[in-house]
Every structure is written in structure tokens, then in C-alpha cells.
Specification:
The protein has about 200 residues and is of the alpha+beta class. The strands form 2 sheets. The protein has a 4-stranded antiparallel beta sheet with strand order 4-5-6-7, with no helix packed on it. A 3-stranded antiparallel beta sheet has the order 2-1-3, with no helix packed on it. It has 4 helices and 7 strands. Helix 2 crosses helix 3. The model has no long low-confidence stretch (mean pLDDT about 85). Strand 4 and strand 5 form a beta hairpin. This is Zinc-ribbon domain-containing protein. Keywords: Membrane, Transmembrane, Transmembrane helix. InterPro entries: Zinc_ribbon_dom (IPR026870). Pfam families: Zn_Ribbon_1.
Length: about 200
């Protein structure tokens, strides 16, 4: 149903009305004078399409950018940490290598010094005794070269110092034989030893 304007009083009435209810004008008898009113479209009749929520889009973009920044920072931190570890490992390796070189140089120096000392010793009287009697210790050879006597020295060392004894006596008191060797021209003159030929006493 649409509205029309009454030609007489301009009142708006239905297009199905036979006459104007206000002035009584006959619509049926004068259809040519009827002016049909086209109603204006109601803008609110058809709701407009909702625009997208820009706030949600911005929030999503911010979240993505933040996640990307966190990823970049984490990668940079990991790279820095790896670089620091590699640097520390390289430093430790260099220090270990330097320590090894210093230790090797120190050992070489010690060996060189020992060789020098050995060569010097072998040129001495004690060194010549040691070369002739390698079963004796170097310390014993030094003592023999200085004609020292001591409890625990071997009978052969005493003979090397003094030559053959003037007298050798044997005795046995039930606990095995014991021996007495005497050099009349020396002080002390008599030495006592057992079968192992280790000097046990002297006078």
C-alpha cells in the first residue's frame, strides 16, 4: 500500500481510499488528479555492513611484531653466548698450549742441565770409580773417592780404598761366620763384616 495526496486538501491518504476522509473529495471520480507519493527510502531499514574491528587487527599486528622482536633478540643472545663460549675455549686452549710449551721447555732445560752435570761428574775421580763399578751408587763413589769409611759400606769399597788387608780372620759364634779384616798402617785398622760383606763395625 502507498500514499497519495488529496487534490483538494493535500491530505495524505491511502491509494485504495474512495474519498478523502478529511474533505470528502471523491478519489474514485477523479483518478487523474491523484498525485502518488513515493515514500523516501528509510536508511535505517537496511542495516549497513559492519566495518571490521580495526582494534583487533592492530592487536594481532603488534603481537606478531613483538614475537618477531623476541625471536631476533633470542637469536642475538644465543649468537653472543656462543661467541663468548668459543672465545673462552680458544683462550683456554691457547693457555694450555702455552703451559705445555713452557713445561716442555722446562723439562728440556732440566734434562740438558742433568746431562751437563753427568758429564762433569764422569770426569771426576768419583765418576771414574762409578764407571768402573756401576753397581755402586754415585754417592758411595764420591765417599770412596774421598777415602771415607762408614757402617754399611761394602767390603769391596774398603779394599778399593786401602788395597788388600794385612790380615783376615774368621770366627763363628753359632749365628754364622763373621770376618775381621785389618790394615796395620791405617786408623781405624780392623773392620768386621758378615757373609754379605757389609761392614758392621770397626775399631
Amino acid at each position: 500500500m502507498s500514499l497519495i495526496k488529496c487534490p483538494e486538501c493535500s491530505n495524505l491518504i491511502s491509494d485504495t481510499a474512495l474519498q478523502c476522509p478529511k474533505c470528502g473529495y471523491s478519489i474514485k471520480d477523479n483518478p487523474s488528479n491523484i498525485q502518488k507519493i513515493i515514500p523516501k527510502a528509510n536508511n535505517n531499514q537496511y542495516p549497513s555492513t559492519q566495518k571490521p574491528n580495526n582494534g583487533c587487527v592492530i592487536a594481532v599486528l603488534i603481537f606478531i611484531v613483538f614475537g618477531f622482536l623476541v625471536f631476533i633478540v633470542d637469536k642475538c643472545s644465543s649468537s653472543t653466548s656462543n661467541i663468548n663460549k668459543d672465545s673462552a675455549t680458544a683462550i683456554e686452549t691457547n693457555v694450555s698450549r702455552e703451559d705445555s710449551i713452557r713445561n716442555q721447555a722446562r723439562m728440556d732445560s732440566i734434562k740438558k742441565q742433568e746431562k751437563i752435570e753427568e758429564e762433569k761428574f764422569m770426569k771426576t775421580k768419583a765418576g771414574k770409580i762409578y764407571k768402573k763399578h756401576p753397581e755402586w751408587s754415585k754417592e758411595d763413589c764420591i765417599n770412596v773417592s774421598k777415602n771415607r769409611i762408614w757402617i754399611g759400606m761394602h767390603y769391596d769399597m774398603l779394599v778399593y780404598e786401602r788395597g788388600r788387608p794385612d790380615d783376615v780372620n774368621t770366627s763363628n759364634y753359632g749365628d754364622g761366620p763373621s770376618y775381621q779384616a785389618c790394615w796395620h798402617d791405617y786408623q781405624a785398622s780392623c773392620f768386621y763384616f758378615d757373609e754379605s760383606q757389609i761392614i758392621t763395625s770397626y775399631n
